[in-house]
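Lab notebook, design round three. We kept the backbone fixed and only want residue identities now. Task for the bench partner: fill in a sequence for the structure below.
Input structure tokens:
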């Protein structure tokens, strides 16, 4: 789709399969659609043919057949919706259900005396529903003829409508002045981005079925489109699947009158099968109460399980840390033991060296005495050497004098000898 129902073509990216309208904030499927999607000629291939229920919806409901879907819807969503319908719809009024599917809600309304008519697209499904539930069902789109209804119901239909304005225009045309329109449709939170929606309301992503859900509305955008057709009185009730997933509403052009609990009970007691429906409602409420208790218990269990898992994780981390520290302690113990052995070995060496040092000290003292003795002797020797050096010096001097005298004498001898030779 390249345009929103409101006419705005300025669409923003929202998710892989949906745009976001910048004006009304509706989500718009990126898939292109034609009016022919509502024509059922081939029950197997056409979108809303028999195959839609036998394959798609049975799988979604987690059952094996359409018979099982009927039974499932009767005692869960059908009876839930009926609880609010008897609150807002006038008793015995004319009610049209658009897109009745397998007809469970119309069947329950018929049992309570409502003048019901149901509309569905698949001839095969209409025949099947007529045979199974014997309700007033016609195989055609809504809006033909001049019939007016006191109430119009469209459960899980509005999101499939290609032209919601045309649809509401037909509803407005075929509803009485005080008539009530009842819708259930997916509801998304326009204040959340897609990523935040996936985080905070993850169930809603299951409703983003782009090949079927053409427009997905917020409460603000559905209020806008309803008010544009004069439906100013809008009451939101709790959705069967939860308000983070769906919205369930009743809308009217005038103030809605509410049936009192006493009036509802009186009606149940005076229509055929009324007491049976009342019993089903009582059982549903009791079952829903049990479900709420279970959900509370399960939430508490989940919370405690998360705490246990968190504590288990912390314990495992603590155990890993303990083991790591134990490993470190073992390593340190081994290192201390090795250090102790080394210390003992070094202590032995120290003792040995001390002993050697003591022996060396004794030897040093002995050698010191020898050194002192030798020093003394050397000093005495030095003194003697100095005396002897003086003697040597004195002798050397005397020798030099003697040598000088000897030379003088030798010179005299030589002179005398020459003189002697001459006299001869």
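Proposed sequence:
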């Amino acid at each position: 789709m390249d345009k929103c129902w409101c006419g705005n073509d300025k669409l923003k990216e929202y998710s892989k399969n949906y745009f976001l309208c910048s004006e009304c904030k509706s989500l718009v499927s990126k898939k292109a659609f034609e009016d022919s999607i509502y024509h059922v000629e081939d029950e197997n291939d056409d979108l809303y043919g028999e195959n839609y229920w036998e394959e798609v919806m049975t799988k979604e409901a987690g059952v094996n057949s359409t018979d099982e879907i009927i039974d499932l819807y009767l005692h869960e969503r059908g009876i839930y919706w009926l609880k609010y319908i008897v609150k807002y719809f006038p008793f015995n009024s004319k009610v049209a259900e658009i897109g009745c599917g397998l007809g469970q809600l119309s069947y329950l309304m018929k049992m309570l005396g409502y003048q019901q008519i149901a509309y569905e697209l698949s001839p095969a499904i209409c025949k099947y529903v007529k045979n199974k539930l014997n309700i007033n069902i016609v195989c055609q789109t809504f809006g033909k003829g001049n019939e007016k209804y006191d109430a119009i119901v469209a459960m899980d239909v509005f999101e499939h409508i290609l032209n919601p304005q045309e649809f509401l225009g037909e509803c407005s045309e075929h509803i009485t002045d005080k008539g009530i329109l009842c819708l259930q449709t997916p509801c998304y939170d326009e204040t959340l981005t897609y990523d935040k929606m996936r985080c905070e309301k993850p169930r809603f992503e299951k409703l983003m079925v782009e090949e079927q859900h053409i427009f997905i509305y917020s409460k603000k955008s559905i209020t806008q489109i309803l008010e544009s057709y004069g439906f100013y009185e809008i009451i939101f009730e709790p959705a069967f699947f939860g308000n983070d997933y769906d919205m369930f509403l009743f809308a009217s052009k005038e103030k809605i009158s509410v049936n009192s609990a006493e009036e509802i009970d009186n009606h149940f007691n005076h229509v055929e099968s009324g007491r049976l429906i009342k019993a089903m409602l009582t059982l549903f409420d009791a079952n829903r109460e049990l479900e709420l208790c279970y959900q509370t218990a399960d939430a508490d269990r989940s919370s405690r399980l998360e705490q246990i898992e968190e504590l288990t994780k912390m314990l495992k981390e603590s155990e890993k840390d303990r083991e790591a520290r134990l490993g470190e302690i073992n390593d340190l113990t081994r290192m201390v033991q090795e250090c102790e052995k080394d210390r003992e070995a070094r202590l032995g060496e120290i003792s040995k060296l001390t002993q050697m040092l003591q022996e060396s000290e004794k030897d040093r003292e002995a050698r010191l005495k020898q050194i002192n003795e030798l020093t003394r002797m050397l000093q005495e020797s030095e003194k003697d050497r100095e005396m002897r050096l003086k003697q040597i010096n004195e002798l050397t001097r005397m020798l030099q004098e003697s040598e000088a005298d000897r030379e003088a004498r030798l010179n005299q001898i030589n002179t005398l000898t020459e003189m002697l030779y001459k006299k001869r």
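Keep this in mind before ordering anything: Residues 274-423 form the longest helix (150 residues).
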